[in-house]
Automatic annotation (TrEMBL), chain A:
SUPFAM superfamilies: Ribosomal protein L22 (SSF54843). The keyword Cell division does not apply. Gene3D superfamilies: Ribosomal protein L22/L17. GO terms for biological process: translation. This is Large ribosomal subunit protein uL22m. Coiled coil: none annotated. It is found in: Mitochondrion. Its main location: mitochondrion. It comes from Zophobas morio. GO terms for cellular component: mitochondrial large ribosomal subunit. Component of the mitochondrial ribosome large subunit (39S) which comprises a 16S rRNA and about 50 distinct proteins. GO terms for molecular function: structural constituent of ribosome. Belongs to the universal ribosomal protein uL22 family.
UniProtKB/TrEMBL annotation, chain B:
This is Large ribosomal subunit protein mL45. Its main location: mitochondrion. The keyword Ribosomal protein applies. Keywords: Mitochondrion, Ribonucleoprotein, Ribosomal protein, Transit peptide. The keyword Ribosomal protein applies. It is found in: Mitochondrion.
Amino acid sequence: MTLFRTRPLLKLVSQYQSAVVLPAATKIHTSAFLQAWKPEDHEPQKFLEYNKKIYPPQSPDEAPRPAFVCHQRSNIKYSPWKMWYIACLVRGMTVDEAIKQLKFVLMKGAKDVRETIEEARDLAVKEHNVEFASNLWVAESFVGKGHVVKGIRRHGRARFGRVEYFHCHYFVRLEEGKPPKHYYQHHPKEPHQQLEDWLQQMRKRKITNSI
Amino acid sequence: MALRIANLLGPRLLNEPLVALTVSRSHDQFVRHRHTKHWNPKWKTLRRQKVMRVKLPNFQEKPEDLSEEEIRSRLKEQGILPPRPWNEKPFFLSCTGGIFEAYVPPEGDGKISPIQVQGAKQKLQYLEKKSRTMMAIRKIKSFEEEFDTATFCKEAEDIYVKMHDLMAKRDLENMTDYVTERAYPEVIHNIENKTIHWKLIKNIELPRVVHARCTDVITKENIFGQTTVRFHTQQMLAVYDRFGRLMHGSEIIAKDVLEYVVFEKHLANLYGKWRVHGKIIPDWLPPKEPSLITYLKPTEETSTTETAVTKTSPDTEQEIPKESNT
């Protein structure tokens, strides 16, 4: 049982320019045959579309809109469920901090995440008018489920089980500027806030049957 | 009891580094034992055979990383024939590939005194070229009877404005009505992901034809005409990046622009049109204004060090090929 990636192969077929081509071979019309090789590695398309949006010009008195860049790596041979932990780790970090932290994560997927973030950082400077590469933070970092290859495993009594080989997509959006203090909306309250809440709660109490 | 021993031993153990090391090592090693495997290794192969082997596709593989031999073997494996080599070179017959006998703009816009040696030489050359220009205009008139330099200048200005408007609108469909195939890549270079605001405010001097040439391509009758028009105008240019932030220029500052634009027409073609063919950039052009942001200087293949410098010739300026400040 073998599975191939056909799209890159077709790409390389188009690149491959052999000097020795049989004259008979050129007569064979192969395009329909090549079309029959349906590419199975569907890459997510929508996320990268955000990179194409052009925002209207701003007036000089407006605060400049922070630049952002979306980037992804698709079909990484790693479990999406395991990748989620790595994706969560870097949320709300500066790019440099995220890369530094990921260097110390021993999970296999950390390498792909780090490379994706580095690629996105370079892309931001190269194509999206970001002046300083270190002035970026990880605004979004999430995982998608990719291609699943199904295999078979033998069980006793003429039965079989299914083995699933998962791939995952990793998506990252880097935004220009400093990261916010709290990435998530619901974050632990500061001590003085807690005290205030408690005081309010205490003062709101109503003693039943009182005046 | 144990506590007492620990209390007694504790300080002593801490003092002796060797003992402390052995203690910590015993805590480090966690060994997981699997209890689902048979103890006898003779079943190992049978266990392995239970799972059907799947050759997983390598999605991270890039076709450009593969060697030719690898590609060959892959194609052979799948029974795909190597494709027919596609060595075609596209070329257009509707425009020429360059500016022939390009106009050389006189330094200081021709204000140099004819008493000086340089000035006298320029005047002489100017006269010589003028006669050839007149001949070329006569040739154009033989194809296009109502050709007149004064009316043509108005037409040229319209084409010039239209071209810039289309560039600002990023309308690539209609661009080739106003731009030749040779100038097209120069015009559309670097305009993606940007918003361009351009406006022609007024003419400081009326545009005038300074140069004209005709040439034949392949056959005698297949004639192309090129005219160089001098524009001295006041323009406004502001370039915004994808996020609407100002990259270059300004909405409120008008700049004087002097430029020599070459127009071309396929005279032999009944349906030929005057189109923008290029721009003459003189050597004595003053240096471009630096951009607003800094960037890493792209390094050569040989050197590996990268240095941060302030921009002197930014990308943003190259993308608008039609501006030269005087």
